[in-house]
Specification:
79 residues, mainly beta, four-stranded antiparallel β-sheet, 6 strands, 0% helix
Length: 79
C-alpha cells in the first residue's frame, strides 16, 4: 500500500512554549483500501506533541481518498 502524507505550511513564527494545531493529511495512493493505518510522529528538538500521544490510529482510507488529523504541538525553540 502507498500513502502520501502532507503537512501544512507554518505561516507565522512559533516561539518556545507556544502551541499550535498541526493538520496532517494522509492520502491513499495505492490500489487497495488502507486498513486502520497508524500515523506515528517523532518529536524533534523543536516540536513536541501536546499530551504525549505520538501514534494515531485512523479509520480505513479508501483508494484515492484522504484523511486529515489535527494534532496539538508545542514549540521547544523558535521555529
Amino acid at each position: 500500500m502507498k500513502l502520501t502524507p502532507r503537512l501544512q505550511k507554518i505561516a507565522d513564527e512559533i516561539k518556545p512554549g507556544e502551541t499550535m494545531t498541526l493538520n496532517i493529511t494522509v492520502k491513499n495512493v495505492g490500489k487497495a483500501v488502507m486498513q486502520n493505518p497508524i500515523i506515528t510522529l517523532t518529536p524533534s528538538d523543536a516540536l513536541t506533541v501536546v499530551g504525549g500521544t505520538t501514534a494515531f490510529q485512523l479509520n480505513n482510507i479508501n483508494i484515492g481518498k484522504d484523511v486529515t488529523i489535527a494534532v496539538q504541538v508545542r514549540a521547544l525553540k523558535t521555529i
